[in-house]
Amino acid sequence: MKSAVLVFPGSNCDRDLAVALRDVTGTAPTMVWHGETELPEGVGLIAVPGGFSYGDYLRSGAMAARSPIMRAVVDAAGRGVPVLGVCNGFQILTEAGLLPGALMRNAGLNFVCRTVPLKVENAQTAFTSRYSAGEEIMVPVAHHDGNYSADAETLDRLEGEGRVAFRYGEPVNGSARNIAGIFNEAGNVLGLMPHPERVVDPAHGRTDGRRLFEGLLETVG
Amino acid sequence: MKARIFVTLKPGVLDPQGKAIQHALEGLGFADVEDVRQGKLIELEVADGTDDATLDAMCRQLLANTVIENYRIERL
């Protein structure tokens, strides 16, 4: 599977994502600088990493969402190419309009950095096919702005259309309906605050995130 | 020409920072504060004659996230 990992000034999980993708798929992803205007030919997965792009200036993800490479990402997402946004990547995807809603400051104002239980809500997607619906996994979070917010109508639509990917199993950041990750309408874009790339190797202590990448490899080929 | 852009959270959007400021004011003895909402003020120096539509486009495309924020433009 050919994959690309975007790199913005201030990204700090780009290499973690690259290592996870290389280990699971057997192929090292192409690292794509934000100033580029094109993605590698035939890319099967675009990963938008965590970190603090542009120092979270203005709003988390706001600047990165307007960088040149994002126009190519929006085009690719429209053609059905899977896009995975983790943490700051999720914030960037909402700011870019690829996912609805917004990630606000955590309700408790604290930076939350711990491993949390996540319930898999929809296991019938390219990202989650290796999980079972309702399964609980443990995945680390590390964020200040993870409080998912959208109007009630949007939240109802997300729930009704099976577009809630993961839900926190305990209160974490004040997210509406404990939402930790969502899909776009077509199901090829996933944004989530927890870091699956930090739990892929037995040396990490857990491997709960590995199946997300394995599922993508199986679907994308 | 100067333009000021005031960005505020939409009514109903929870503002934990505003709440924390309110509590801090209460801690200082200002007991009459009923609510605090925190926003942003962005000052732009733009070419004379920059029209409203252009300033509005700047707000919609970058300066405010209209999912959660309102904005108001003031020309100086």
From TrEMBL, chain A:
<keyword id="KW-0963">Cytoplasm</keyword>
<comment type="pathway">
    <text>Purine metabolism; IMP biosynthesis via de novo pathway; 5-amino-1-(5-phospho-D-ribosyl)imidazole from N(2)-formyl-N(1)-(5-phospho-D-ribosyl)glycinamide: step 1/2.</text>
</comment>
<dbReference type="GO" id="GO:0006189">
    <property type="term" value="P:'de novo' IMP biosynthetic process"/>
</dbReference>
<feature type="active site">
    <location>
        <position position="197"/>
    </location>
</feature>
<comment type="subunit">
    <text>Part of the FGAM synthase complex composed of 1 PurL, 1 PurQ and 2 PurS subunits.</text>
</comment>
<keyword id="KW-0378">Hydrolase</keyword>
<dbReference type="Pfam" id="PF13507">
    <property type="entry name" value="GATase_5"/>
</dbReference>
<dbReference type="GO" id="GO:0004359">
    <property type="term" value="F:glutaminase activity"/>
</dbReference>
<dbReference type="GO" id="GO:0005524">
    <property type="term" value="F:ATP binding"/>
</dbReference>
<dbReference type="InterPro" id="IPR010075">
    <property type="entry name" value="PRibForGlyAmidine_synth_PurQ"/>
</dbReference>
<keyword id="KW-0436">Ligase</keyword>
<dbReference type="InterPro" id="IPR029062">
    <property type="entry name" value="Class_I_gatase-like"/>
</dbReference>
<protein>
    <recommendedName>
        <fullName>Phosphoribosylformylglycinamidine synthase subunit PurQ</fullName>
        <ecNumber>6.3.5.3</ecNumber>
        <ecNumber>3.5.1.2</ecNumber>
    </recommendedName>
</protein>
<feature type="active site" description="Nucleophile">
    <location>
        <position position="87"/>
    </location>
</feature>
<keyword id="KW-0315">Glutamine amidotransferase</keyword>
<keyword id="KW-0067">ATP-binding</keyword>
<keyword id="KW-0658">Purine biosynthesis</keyword>
<feature type="active site">
    <location>
        <position position="195"/>
    </location>
</feature>
<comment type="function">
    <text>Part of the phosphoribosylformylglycinamidine synthase complex involved in the purines biosynthetic pathway. Catalyzes the ATP-dependent conversion of formylglycinamide ribonucleotide (FGAR) and glutamine to yield formylglycinamidine ribonucleotide (FGAM) and glutamate. The FGAM synthase complex is composed of three subunits. PurQ produces an ammonia molecule by converting glutamine to glutamate. PurL transfers the ammonia molecule to FGAR to form FGAM in an ATP-dependent manner.</text>
</comment>
<dbReference type="GO" id="GO:0004642">
    <property type="term" value="F:phosphoribosylformylglycinamidine synthase activity"/>
</dbReference>
<dbReference type="GO" id="GO:0005737">
    <property type="term" value="C:cytoplasm"/>
</dbReference>
<keyword id="KW-0547">Nucleotide-binding</keyword>
UniProtKB/TrEMBL annotation, chain B:
<dbReference type="Pfam" id="PF02700">
    <property type="entry name" value="PurS"/>
</dbReference>
<comment type="similarity">
    <text>Belongs to the PurS family.</text>
</comment>
<keyword id="KW-0547">Nucleotide-binding</keyword>
<comment type="pathway">
    <text>Purine metabolism; IMP biosynthesis via de novo pathway; 5-amino-1-(5-phospho-D-ribosyl)imidazole from N(2)-formyl-N(1)-(5-phospho-D-ribosyl)glycinamide: step 1/2.</text>
</comment>
<dbReference type="InterPro" id="IPR036604">
    <property type="entry name" value="PurS-like_sf"/>
</dbReference>
<keyword id="KW-0963">Cytoplasm</keyword>
<keyword id="KW-0658">Purine biosynthesis</keyword>
<dbReference type="GO" id="GO:0004642">
    <property type="term" value="F:phosphoribosylformylglycinamidine synthase activity"/>
</dbReference>
<keyword id="KW-0436">Ligase</keyword>
<keyword id="KW-0067">ATP-binding</keyword>
<dbReference type="InterPro" id="IPR003850">
    <property type="entry name" value="PurS"/>
</dbReference>
<dbReference type="GO" id="GO:0005524">
    <property type="term" value="F:ATP binding"/>
</dbReference>
<protein>
    <recommendedName>
        <fullName>Phosphoribosylformylglycinamidine synthase subunit PurS</fullName>
        <ecNumber>6.3.5.3</ecNumber>
    </recommendedName>
</protein>
<comment type="function">
    <text>Part of the phosphoribosylformylglycinamidine synthase complex involved in the purines biosynthetic pathway. Catalyzes the ATP-dependent conversion of formylglycinamide ribonucleotide (FGAR) and glutamine to yield formylglycinamidine ribonucleotide (FGAM) and glutamate. The FGAM synthase complex is composed of three subunits. PurQ produces an ammonia molecule by converting glutamine to glutamate. PurL transfers the ammonia molecule to FGAR to form FGAM in an ATP-dependent manner.</text>
</comment>
<dbReference type="GO" id="GO:0005737">
    <property type="term" value="C:cytoplasm"/>
</dbReference>
<dbReference type="GO" id="GO:0006189">
    <property type="term" value="P:'de novo' IMP biosynthetic process"/>
</dbReference>
<comment type="subunit">
    <text>Part of the FGAM synthase complex composed of 1 PurL, 1 PurQ and 2 PurS subunits.</text>
</comment>
